[in-house]
Amino acid sequence: MSIYLKHMGGYKHNQLKGRSYDEIQKLFDKEMKRVNYFVAMNSEVQEINGKKDESSSKKTEIAQDCSAKRAGDKLESDKFKKQKTDENEKVEVDNEAELKKHMVTVKDDDIAIDAIPLATKPPVIGIDREDLQTLWKLVKTKHGDTRPEDEHERVLWGDLKVMFEPDIKSDVWRNLQGYKVIVWKLFDSCGVHFVRFRNAHIFMLVEKRYPLTPITIANMLYKKLQADY
């Protein structure tokens, strides 16, 4: 019925959206009535035996009323469409004006770019130590020592397990010697070191001792600790 109303009645999607079944049914019956009683405005009423057919006259009147009603509905639809367009344009203008309040134009010569490639950019940690410990308890309760199947949960589980339960027999520590340190940072909010290697990364609590290799430590010191997070 909605498809029929859109194609035959000229209704828009936003005019039908949210209406109940009974409301759609009434609109549909209304359109069907217009179709059943429609008579072209320029059609001539035939006379039978010199008299006008009373039924045809009534149909013509109904057709005229329907045509007027259809024209009114179309005018109302055009007004609604124009109003929505004006509202959208006003919102866009307001948003653009608000955005310009927070923008400053600078010359290209004044811009210094020291960007980290997206592939090596560390994740942003905006939580404190208590939140971090709570997160580890939740993950450990859910998965225990079983490696999750979901990729994102597996990364989170692995990062937290290495951070809270470092195991010298783990491949994470045994393979560090072959990894090159890209960045070494300290997240002050939760007291966590972040070390990004070319092929991996690790998180470490500031008060724990981890089985880092001498080569890894030397590479970390060479990169220097960035404590600006």
Summarize the structure.
With 229 residues, the protein is mainly alpha-helical. The protein has helices spanning 2-8, 13-16, 21-36, 54-101, 129-143, 151-164, 171-174, 214-223, and strands at 47-48, 51-52, 181-187, 192-197, 201-205.
Labels describing this entry:
2 domains, 3-stranded antiparallel beta sheet, two-stranded antiparallel sheet, 5 strands, 229 residues, 10% strand, mainly alpha, 8 helices, single chain
Describe the structure in your own words.
- Residues 48-89 are annotated as: Disordered.
- The chain has 229 residues and is mainly α.
- The chain has two domains: 2-101, no CATH class; 118-223, no CATH class.
- It is 52% helix and 10% strand.
- The strands form two sheets. A three-stranded antiparallel sheet has the order 3-4-5. Strands 1-2 form a two-stranded antiparallel ribbon.
- A hairpin with a 2-residue loop joins strand 1 and strand 2 (51-52).
- 4% of the residues are buried.
- The model has no long low-confidence stretch (mean pLDDT 77).
- Shape designation: elongated
What is the distance, rounded to the nearest whole angstrom, between the alpha carbons of the first and last residues? 59 Å
Mean pLDDT: 77
Return Rg in Å: 36 Å
Strand content: 5-15%
Largest sheet: 3 strands, antiparallel
Structural class: mainly alpha
| Strand order in the sheet with the most strands | 3-4-5
